[in-house]
Amino acid sequence: MKYKLDFSPKVNVSSPPVTGAVVSASLQPVFVAWQPSTWPAVPSVMDEKFIYTLKRIFEDSILGEISNVIADVRKSNGDLQHRGHVIAISLMCALDAIASYGYRGHHVAEFIKHQCRSDYHPHAEQIYELYRCSLVHSWNLFEASIYPDDRKIALEGSSIAFGLLDFFEVLVQGTESFLESLASDAVLQRNTLERYKELRPTAKP
After folding, report:
1. 148: exposed, middle or buried (C-beta count within 10 Å: 0-12, 13-18, 19+)?
2. Interacting residues of 137 by C-beta distance below 8 A, sequence separation 6+
3. Distance (Å, rounded) from C-alpha 113 to C-alpha 129?
4. What is the model's pTM?
5. Whose C-alpha in 3, 146, 151, 204 is 20 to 30 A from the C-alpha of 165?
6. C-beta pairs of 50-55 under 8 Å, 24+ apart in sequence
7. Segments in 62-105 forming alpha helices (H)
């Protein structure tokens, strides 16, 4: 896979803010994934360089951050119990953010249907409604469940459930699949360039 995500530490000798705008004029205008003001200008057409830019954004400032939190929690707690809400909410925000580049309308569900592992496809709408909306807006789940492990998605009575670690892996694989699709899918290319064009100019230098 050409655009496989890499969560290994990146060498960076500077000390920029951990997120947001660059507040010191003395810093070099080097591309830093979590600082949108350093993102490259909007390209006129989709090319490999731009796909690698998106890869770094998703890799370093979104999924890599979550990977680090999961690793820290497992190191200190042994598993994800009692830390599941924070990780689950961040995963749903990550899903929403990444999906918003390539898809319009019900972008979360569309991303799941087109890019994620096939066992998640039948539950795409429910994942948006029962997980994303419930966790982000109400912090808790009321009609579904998440486990602190890697169990696969499945029906439990009338509701669905999956493990946080499995969902993280599915989101990583889905993101890689999306980046691969960008090389040839004209609709995804147009949507992604439009989304980037909306976001990039709002960054404060």
Report:
1. buried
2. none
3. 15
4. 0.89
5. 3
6. 51/3, 51/179, 51/182, 51/183, 52/3, 54/101, 54/179, 54/182, 54/192, 54/196, 55/3, 55/5, 55/179
7. 64-77, 84-102
Residues in the chain: 205
How many Å apart are CA 65 and CA 7, to the nearest integer?
Answer: 9
Distance CA 33, CA 18 (A): 10
Tokens of 181: 């699709």
Bridge partners (DSSP) listed for residue 156: 159
Segments of the chain scoring below 50 in pLDDT: 13, 25
Residue 73 has which token pair? Answer: 């929690």
Residue 7's closest CA among 169, 187, 120, 159?
Answer: 169
Please, are residues 80 and 170 in contact by the beta-carbon 8 Å criterion? no
Q: Cα(16)–Cα(35) distance, rounded to whole angstroms?
A: 9
- Domain residue ranges in the chain: 46-202
